[in-house]
Design goal:
Blueprint lengths: L1 H17 L3 E5 L1 H6 L25 E7 L3 E8 L4 E8 L3 E5 L22 E6 L1 H23 L3 H4 E8 L4 E5 L9 E2 L7 H8 L4 H8 L10 H11 L1 H8 L7 E5 H10 L33 E3 H4 L15 H8 L11 E3 L2 E6 L13 E7 H8 L8 E5 L3 E8 L10 E6 L7 H5 L30 E8 L5 H9 L14 H11 L8 E3 L15 E3 L7 H27 L12 E6 L5 H11 L2 E4 L8 H15 L5 H5 L6 E3 L5 H19 L3 H24 L8 H11 L8 H14 L1 H18 L5 H4 L1
Parallel strand pairs: 2-7, 7-14, 11-12, 15-21, 21-22
Antiparallel strand pairs: 1-4, 2-3, 3-4, 5-6, 6-9, 8-10, 13-14, 15-16, 16-18, 17-18, 19-20, 22-23
Length: 770
């Protein structure tokens, strides 16, 4: 199965890298207003050669590598976006068609309709990810130098990295070759690995050691390590080889990018950054990247592996690694060194393939969710934020206390501040780098260039609703149902404005509720079906669009209620109510959704993303943390002063209205959860059995209880005779005979009984539906 996948995808990757397009935006007014005059602030700014300028802007760079695009954003000392460049990254997708183990409960099997279930696998070319970074940086550097006389090499004080979490890369540190493509965070291939771990006898012990992460979370990086070990022979062979074992590298996207930026081309003389010209060779390895770079990660990314002991050491736990990867053995040298989120991560090499960043220090690494939280200045307990994209991701800070959720949320690390950079070390071309090639057993040797963590770890509670953040729902309404003018992803502003205007054109949902379908059911196919409840002839497309947008706010309310309940279990010092809700993401440009969210949460909702879009919060967080380490800003209070509000929404709904909406949504969700195909079949079987029991009772004498309205209608439809004075048992016998001889009639009768019984019955109870 693995060999077949490799032979079918090599050509796809080669063409995808060439298809990258980069969009550059520069804000000249911001550059002019925030120009740093030498001597007017901390640290000296460089002078562009040949321009005659006596000053240059003091800039902080931020690399945000996401699941659909890569951005390089440049911020000024005032925390404003001076320029940005964005390039799309191309996800490689294909269907897993084989049936795995073939067991009766296998998720690969046929569904109730006899259709073959197929999971979608998602991955990236690792060198495509790095190439997108190179393209963004160099395109922006060229535009700034050519049109605005700004030299990034001399103006940048530091660079931060914010990355998509969960995606995993495996490569060889000696040759630079990747063992496999980067597996995407939401790829379905690890579902069985996660399910097996969750079913193990020691699952509770593992959960306690991991400090709050759910056992069996298939989006965690550790699950992908196990899958690679099970399915890539070359990787297993190198781990078994004493000469190659210490060169094996597993890393999330942050570790991969840092390694490439601080490394150099392999000694074989291949071009910097590697090449995809050859696709995948016969040995199963992609063309090589750089070697000898800093092999590091930060606490926020490491906390999402399932290999880290969150409860005690905040470092890799050999016992957890062994338990998760058995029967395979993974040495600690194969995992990146865990550092604070802000501090020294290495100096970018002058021949790494990104010359505009040569000599600049990497001073921050963060997962993009935590970085977005940091960019929204949610530093202290009770400060909450939410990212609206294809998914919905809510985080609430719990301070320095690790709060265990009782409502199913994930306890995660929010950030940890390390020591300030020494300016001489940070700007020197020969700064000592963290080698990823140290021999096994040397991890306990301190590197003086790195320093030690000086700040405590800050934690957060995190809740996620995959693929229900609003943009995907609107895209479904636009492309599948064609009730919107265009997809919300086709333009930066028009689609959201269109849906917002439609939703606002009606005073209420008029009793209509929309429960989104399980857009992620390509993983398991057993999620809840979508449901539109309360629809009548008076409803229009505006009502449906409004109900769809409202559903996003209802999900957000559910997450915040869980987080608020968990916060009450924290210590008095960290027990704080959420009084302001900070949002980012593309859907924050939808005024109706933001106002309805404020109404449902009963708190003020604040957007800080501005016109730059949803990625700015994540990019800003990495830049702020890097600037702290570089001395551009002195502390968190100064960063709070940089925060600029784009819009603020205040609750305007009464408590009675809010409770009515909540109850209506709850009823809609119950009906969605109760109408899966399996339960519909159970309802039919139960209805048949109920009719047989009623017939038996009626033949024997008077009915013990009055049949419900659905059963009465069913009887009239089946007998199809006018009321007469004939004995009741004769009519019953005729009914049984006619239905038994005509299976089509029996099916029609049962469908009518189920539909009418559902409408006339109690709605939530199975008896009412029958």
């Amino acid at each position: 199965q693995h060999r077949s996948i490799e032979s079918n995808r090599s050509g796809v990757m080669s063409s995808m890298v060439m298809a990258n397009q980069c969009t550059v935006r520069v804000h000249p007014d911001v550059l002019r207003e925030d120009t740093f005059v030498a001597g007017g602030g901390g640290g000296g700014g460089g002078v562009v050669s040949g321009t005659g300028s006596s000053s240059s802007p003091e800039l902080i760079g931020s690399i945000h590598q996401g699941s659909t695009s890569t951005e390089f954003v440049v911020f000024t000392r005032r925390g404003r976006v001076a320029a940005s460049a964005r390039a799309q990254v191309h996800e490689i997708t294909y269907l897993e068609r084989e049936s795995g183990s073939g067991s009766d409960d296998d998720d690969y099997g046929d569904d109730a309709a006899g259709r073959r279930r197929m999971r979608q696998w998602r991955e990236y070319s690792p060198l495509d990810l790095y190439s997108s970074v190179r393209q963004c940086v160099e395109s922006l550097s060229f535009e700034l130098r050519a049109s605005h006389s700004v030299d990034l090499t001399t103006s940048l004080k530091a660079v931060g990295i914010a990355n998509q979490r969960g995606a995993l890369v495996a490569w060889n540190g000696r040759t630079g070759e990747c063992y496999y493509n980067a597996i995407a965070g939401d790829c379905c291939r690890t579902k069985d690995v996660a399910k097996d771990m969750a079913a193990r006898e020691d699952a509770d012990r593992l959960r306690e050691r991991k400090g709050g992460l759910p056992i069996g979370g298939d989006d965690f990086a550790g699950m992908k390590v196990k899958w690679l070990l099970d399915n890539v022979p070359r990787l297993r062979a190198d781990l078994d080889d004493p000469n190659e074992r210490n060169y094996v590298r597993f890393g999330t996207v942050d570790a991969w990018l840092a390694y490439q930026l601080t490394g150099s081309p392999p000694s074989s003389g291949s071009s910097a950054g590697g090449s995809l010209a050859g696709g995948i060779g016969g040995n199963g390895a992609i063309a090589e990247g750089n070697t000898g770079g800093a092999f590091v990660t930060d606490v926020t990314n490491a906390s999402r592996w399932l290999f880290m002991d969150l409860a005690a050491t905040s470092q890799w736990d050999p016992a957890l690694i062994s338990d998760a990867c058995r029967p395979h053995s993974v040495p600690l040298t194969a995992l990146p060194r865990i550092l604070p989120s802000s501090g020294y991560f290495g100096t970018i090499s002058t021949n790494c393939g990104v010359p505009s960043l040569g000599g600049v220090t990497i001073a921050c690494m963060m997962g993009d969710v935590q970085s977005g939280m940091f960019g929204n200045c949610a530093f202290d307990a009770g400060e909450a934020g939410c990212t609206y994209g294809e998914g919905l991701n809510l985080t609430v800070a719990t301070g320095t206390e690790r709060v265990q959720s009782k409502c199913g949320l994930v306890t995660t690390m929010a950030y940890q501040l390390g020591p300030k950079l020494d300016s001489a070390v940070a700007n020197a071309d020969d700064s000592p780098e963290v080698s990823g090639l140290e021999p096994e057993g040397s991890r306990d040797v301190a590197d003086p260039a790195l320093g030690s963590a000086t700040g405590p770890v800050h934690y957060a509670l995190e809740g996620t609703v995959p693929r229900s953040g609003g943009s995907l729902i609107l895209r479904w309404l636009a492309e599948n149902l064609q009730i919107l003018s265009s997809s919300p992803l086709a333009s930066a502003l028009a689609p959201e404005s269109s849906s917002s205007n439609l939703a606002s054109s009606v005073p209420s949902n008029d009793g209509l509720y929309f429960v989104p379908p399980a857009f992620s059911d390509d993983c398991d196919g057993d999620g809840a079906r979508g449901c539109i409840v309360g629809m009548s002839s008076k409803h229009t497309r505006a009502h449906l669009v409004r109900a769809a947008l409202e559903s996003v706010a209802y999900r957000c309310r559910e997450l915040l209620e869980c987080a608020s309940e968990d916060l009450m279990s924290a210590s008095a010092a960290n027990r704080a109510a959420v009084t302001e809700f900070r949002v980012d993401g593309e859907m924050t440009s939808n005024p109706f959704l933001m106002q309805f969210t404020s109404d449902m949460l009963n708190v003020e909702v604040v957007s800080t993303t501005g016109a730059e879009g949803g990625a700015v919060a994540a990019a800003a967080g990495a830049a702020f943390a890097a600037g702290l380490a570089a001395g551009v800003w002195k502390d968190l209070d100064e960063i709070r002063g940089l925060r600029m509000e784009d819009a603020r929404w205040t609750p305007g709904m009464t408590a009675e209205e809010r409770e009515g909406c909540r109850k209506g949504w709850g009823r809609a969700v119950e009906q969605s959860l109760g109408r899966t195909e399996e339960e519909e079949e159970d309802d039919i079987d139960d209805a048949k059995e109920e009719i047989r029991e009623e017939e038996t009772t009626e033949v024997g004498g008077e009915s013990e209880e009055e049949p419900d309205a659905g059963a009465q209608i069913c009887e009239r439809e089946a007998v199809k005779v006018e009321e007469s004075e004939a004995p009741r048992k004769v009519a019953t016998a005729e009914t049984r005979s006619s239905l038994g001889d005509n299976p089509l009639l029996l099916g029609a009768v049962m469908a009518s009984a189920l539909a009418l019984g559902y409408l006339l019955g109690s709605g939530g109870s199975r008896g009412g539906r029958r």
